[in-house]
Amino acid sequence: MASSQSKRSAVYSSDQTAQTLSDAASRTNIEELRKSLPPDKKLMEGRQYLVRKSKRKAAYWEHYLEYLENGKLRAECKFCEKTFVADGNLNGSKNVKNHAEKCLCNPVNKDKGKGKQTELLFQPGEGDKDSEDGDGKLKYGTVNLKEVREALIHMIIVDELPFKHVEKAGFTYLMSVACPRFHIPSRTTVARDCFQLYMSEKTKLKELLKNCQRICVTTDTWTSIQRINYMCITAHFIDNDWKLHKKIINFCPISSHKGEAIGKAVEACLESWGIEDKLFTVTIDNASSNDLACAHLRRMVQRIGCVSDGKFLHIRCIAHIINLIVWDGIKEHGVCIDRVRNAVKYVKNSPARILRFKDLVQKANIESKSSLSFDVPTRWNSTYTMLDTALKFQRVFSGLSLPDGVGVKDNERPPESNDWKKVERLVVFLRGFYLLTRRISGSLYVTSNRGFFEIAAIYDMLNKWEKNVDEDFQAMAISMKKKYDKYWGNVEKMNMLIYVAAILDPHSELLVVEITLIDMYGKEKGMKLANDVKDFSYSLFDEYRSLYSSLIPQSGQSGDPMSIDPNEDDHIGGGSDYMKSLRDRAKRLKGTGGYVRSEFERYLNEQLGAEEEEMDALSWWSINGHRFPIVSRMARDILAIPLSTVASESAFSAGGRHLDPFRSSLTPKMVQTLICTQDWLRTKGMSGVDIEENLQELEELEKDFQNNNLDDDVVYVDAMI
Asked: At a CB cut-off of 8 Å and minimum separation 6, what does 702 contact?
């Protein structure tokens, strides 16, 4: 008994004294110890770590660091922050062993199914997915706590939630009910997990980019609330399965908005991804500094090697040009627009006036479900939406007591009947530009194939309005036509790839492009331009042939100049010798442009069937690409060209939500992590974050409240009605 008691009173194991452990700790090489740790593990400051001369026999001790604390031996997990007493004689080693087998941070336990919690779940029956009390089947299910944590990080990034969201009382309560065994990580851990997910997704994207043929890039700059200049770079490419991809590959600070700085920043980004040799085009707005940026990138691709020596690298943003054209026109109608804008503001700035407005709408029997909306004066498309909506309620505005009289500026007076007539015609005029801008601003479908025809449509619209009997609108069209001519009047200023993109859409034909050019520039000039486009298309095909000559089919194809049937040897007068000479001549022809060019000619003469007419361009190429191996290479590059920088600009909206006045301390590295990962995690079917409420749904909800007398206690007071 005495010996047992003395054994338990010992502080250290019998084979090693306190002095021995202390000496071992003093001899421990901390730098060597750090090298043995996982990448994200750090030694705790102030701890007296030690390394034994002879390792412990149990294998699980390899997952621990030993240290002394107040003269007692403890063990620290290498993969998480948990610690345990480590004196086997006094405390045993069961806890140490169990943790080593269950630690979710330890890679060894990744596939062991640890952290799973079995639950009884009800599976809804067919058609009862939205029913809470429908018949269902009882089944066993498992909740993988690791997957729950991954889903939490996914939610934080995709829904643009702050890291501290996990520490809020409401979320904590939700998880305590939904998954009580889940340990909610701290905000610091969430931030670390977000960065790890970013690195993981970046590795996957690098592999995808490595296998793509070429990429097209859009870029733009933005100044955040932190007064930091950010640049967004978005890569657009079509993969081997003919799927169009749009991926943000950089969202980083930039020192200057100067062209050379932008060019160097884009080059550095491409090099970091290992895709500098794949750059095909850069779509950018019309600022003069961007010309210098494209010149820098052109020199880069010329050093590495590129298509057409980088001559057609620069693509001007069509949406930006349309914006400049429209603003030159609508400034002619500034007074009537200001009057409608002030009338809308007057109504929307007071809940009581909104109720009064709705009451008048009901009495006037106006069935429109549209709601009044503010505009952003610097965005003409929002101005169009405001005018279009306000026009539907013209009679209602006439019944309101809008501010008027002495002291009211002319452009702030209530809209008069003449103002409404101008607005009505202005809405008709702007609708074409509004719809056109929406069509070319997409990033999840091909736009380059319609760019030339959209430019032609603008030309046609302006020509018609120039002949309008209304002198105001005639003057507006003339003003807009001048701006149009500045960018698109001289065909030499247009990128030739825009024409080729139209030809590479199987629904279009070279003849359609020719007719369009004649309509725009007259027969003589139009025919010359059509011939130039045709010659350029053939020269581009020849260049691609030289790059991908190994893909030229080796067997005869219908429509080619020569097709040899090996079974016809005996029917040729000269016998097999003559047949051999024919084959040799055919083999030599296959290496010349005269033979291979026929592939492009066959494509130009291709007739679409009824089913093919319903296909989009990429679907057609995915089915028929093997028939045109060289032309399909051209199509994969050229159809991926974006016509606008909207893809990059939309990232700034997300940036503005991440860096709001309450969340402005995020570092640039973390901002890039959140913006890029959010873009990569979203699928085609997943819409972006919508911070605007659906007004129609809110109005329906309000009616439900009224029907149930839920808003009897809400009182609106406004003395200005």
From this structure: 711
Q: What is the pLDDT of residues 609-662, one digit of tens each?
A: 777 788 889 999 999 998 899 999 999 999 999 998 887 666 656 656 655 665
pLDDT of residue 124: 54
Query: In which residue are the tokens 């002291």 written?
Result: 407
**Backbone phi and psi for residue 716, each to the nearest 5 degrees, phi listed first:** -105, 130
Q: Taking the CA of residue 685 as centre, how many other CA atoms within 13 Å lie in the half-sphere pointing to its CB?
A: 0
- The DSSP bridge pattern shows strands 215-223 and 279-284 to be parallel
Distances (CA, A) of 289 to 252, 475, 497, 686: 19, 32, 23, 35
Picking from 374, 371, 383, the residue whose alpha carbon sits closest to that of residue 334 is 383
DSSP for 53-100, please give it. Answer: SS--SSGGGGGEEEEEETTEEEEEESSSS-EEE--HHHH-SHHHHHHH
Residue 242 in tokens: 């003919």
Q: How far is CA 29 from CA 36, 51, 61, 72, 218, in A?
A: 11, 8, 19, 20, 51
- Residue written as token pair 């024409």: 499
pLDDT tens figures, 376-432 = 777 788 888 888 888 888 888 887 878 877 777 877 888 888 888 888 888 888 888
Please, are residues 219 and 282 in contact by the beta-carbon 8 Å criterion? Answer: yes
- Per DSSP, the three-state class of 691 is coil
Residue that is written with structure tokens 């034909």 in the block: 509
Max CA pair span of the chain? 118
CA Rg value for the chain: 35
> Could you say which DSSP state residue 372 is in?
-
Would you mind telling me the total number of residues written for the chain in this entry? 721
DSSP string, 511-553: HHHHHHHHHHH-HHHHHHHHHHHHHHHHHHHHHHHHHSGGGS-
- If one counts every other C-beta atom within 10 angstroms of the C-beta of residue 92, the result is 11
Query: Is the backbone of residue 456 left (phi > 0), alpha (psi -120 to 50) or beta?
Result: alpha
Contact 402, 420 (CB under 8 A): no
Pick left, alpha or beta for residue 229 (phi over 0 → left; psi -120 to 50 → alpha; otherwise beta). beta
Per-residue confidence band for 22, with pLDDT thresholds at 50, 70 and 90: low
The predicted structure's pLDDT at residue 23: 67
Alpha helices in 159-245 (DSSP H): 169-178, 187-210
Check whether 589 has a pLDDT greater than 70: no
Please check whether residue 225 is in contact with residue 660, taking contact to mean a CB–CB distance below 8 angstroms.
Answer: yes
pLDDT digits (tens, 9 = 90+) for 339-369: 888 888 888 888 888 888 888 888 888 877 6
pLDDT recorded at residue 204: 93
Band of residue 552 on the pLDDT scale cut at 50, 70, 90: low
| Winning range, highest mean pLDDT, from 525-529, 567-571, 691-695 | 525-529
Q: From the CB of residue 559, how many other CB atoms can be counted at a distance below 10 Å?
A: 13
Q: CB–CB of 46/68 below 8 Å?
A: no
Note whether 21 and 12 are within 8 A (CB): yes
How many Å apart are CA 415 and CA 336, to the nearest integer?
Answer: 7
Q: How far is Cα 570 from Cα 316, in angstroms, rounded to an integer? A: 61
DSSP letter for 312, please: T
Q: Does residue 27 have a pLDDT over 60? A: yes
Note whether 393 and 368 are within 8 A (CB). Answer: yes
CA distance 382 to 689: 19
- pLDDT tens by residue, 479-518: 888 888 888 877 777 889 999 999 999 888 788 888 888 8
At 141, give phi and psi (nearest 5°): -145, 160
Q: Which run of H or E residues covers position 263?
A: helix 259-273
pTM over 0.85: no
What gap in Å lies between CA 300 and CA 264, rounded to an integer?
Answer: 10
